[in-house]
Each structure stands twice: as structure tokens, then as C-alpha cells.
Design goal:
Blueprint lengths: L2 H10 L2 H11 L6 E4 L1 H11 L11 E5 L7 H14 L5 E5 L3 H9 L9 H6 L9 E4 L5 E4 L5 H5 L1 E2 L8 H11 L1 H4 L4 E2 L3
Parallel strand pairs: 2-3, 6-7
Antiparallel strand pairs: 1-2, 1-4, 4-5
């Protein structure tokens, strides 16, 4: 089975993840996915044979609309999701607007993103630069611009497109990947 098929099968077999996808689909956004840590946890918990999912600080919902950059739109979508599923720690971000706030938050500017795929390709680690979305016919689609090899090999490797080495090392320390998932390999640099 190919990695994409493995990821889709794993997502379909995980009720909380399928429920999250269905809730986001109900927002009727044109380009969206649930990605990053939610996908990483889904896969790494399964590869570590965990019966209970690891705690997530947030479920990242990435969407893309270059015509609606207002932060109020993200807040409104997040509020809708919280009403539908208050137990889920939603984090909604229009990737088309990231360049407007990224420098103030992370200390360096980034160019405007051109699409949802472009956004996912820029996420901090290759293993987490992955998203899934659910179409109206319940078809699951994977966005993985760098492939799924690092995700399934449990390798944390810096994506230099967005993250400096210093920021990457801070992320590694704060996320505690190797402590949380002992089979993970962290590549320094």
C-alpha cells in the first residue's frame, strides 16, 4: 500500500479525525485542509500503537482565499467550529494572509503564498507539511508537497522554506517529539 493510501485508510479508521474533517467541510470553504500536528499525531500515534490519541494543542484548519484577508473571517470560522465541536481546540488560518502577520509574530518576513498547496509546502517540518480534506462525496484527499516519507518514517526534518535553524531548534525543544514518540528521529539542521 502506498503512503497516501495508508494515510487515507488511517484517517478513515479514526473517528475523531473524520469528524473534524466533516465539521470543517460544513463551512463550505473552497480550498481547505486539516493538517500539521493533527495529521502527525494521527500517524505517529498509530505507528506507536497508542489506543488513545495524543493531546493536541490545536487542530489546524488551513484554508486559502486571497480575496478575504480579514482576520475577523478566521475568528468567525473558528467560532463556528467551536459551536459545532466545543471539545476540539480549533485553530483556523487563512494561509493567503500569513504574510501580513508572520514577521511580527516570528521575526522575519515571508512572501505571500499563492495557494493552499504552496502554504502546506512552507510548513516548518516536512513530516508535518501534510493536510487532508474531505470532498462532498466523502472522498479523502491528501496534500503533501514534500511527500509522506518523513511522516511515515517518523523523521522530523526542518523545512528551510519557512523556518530558521534557531526557530526549528526552539520548536524541537518545545514539541518534545522524541519524548512523546520514542521511535521518532530528529534531524538537527
Amino acid at each position: 500500500m502506498q503512503d497516501g493510501e495508508r494515510l487515507v485508510a488511517l484517517a478513515r479508521a479514526t473517528p475523531w479525525f473524520m469528524q473534524a474533517l466533516a465539521q470543517v467541510r460544513a463551512l463550505r470553504l473552497q480550498a481547505w485542509c486539516v493538517g500539521a500536528g493533527a495529521v502527525r499525531n494521527l500517524v505517529w500515534d498509530a505507528l506507536h500503537a497508542r489506543a488513545m490519541p495524543s493531546a493536541l494543542p490545536d487542530v489546524d484548519v488551513a484554508w486559502f482565499d486571497a480575496d478575504d484577508l480579514a482576520p475577523e473571517r478566521d475568528a468567525a470560522l473558528q467560532a463556528q467550529l467551536r459551536l459545532a465541536a466545543p471539545e476540539t481546540p480549533w485553530e483556523v488560518t487563512n494561509q493567503a494572509a500569513v504574510h501580513l502577520w508572520f514577521e511580527q509574530h516570528f521575526g522575519h518576513a515571508v512572501a505571500p503564498l499563492r495557494s493552499l498547496d504552496d502554504a502546506v509546502a512552507s510548513w516548518p517540518e516536512f513530516a508535518t507539511a501534510v493536510g487532508l480534506w474531505l470532498d462532498d462525496d466523502d472522498g479523502l484527499h491528501v496534500i503533501a508537497p514534500h511527500g509522506l516519507a518523513d511522516l511515515f518514517a517518523m523523521v522530523v526534518r526542518r523545512n528551510p522554506a519557512r523556518v530558521s535553524l534557531q526557530t526549528y531548534r526552539q520548536r524541537i525543544a518545545s514539541k518534545r517529539y522524541a519524548q512523546r514518540w520514542p521511535q521518532v528521529t530528529v534531524v538537527d539542521g
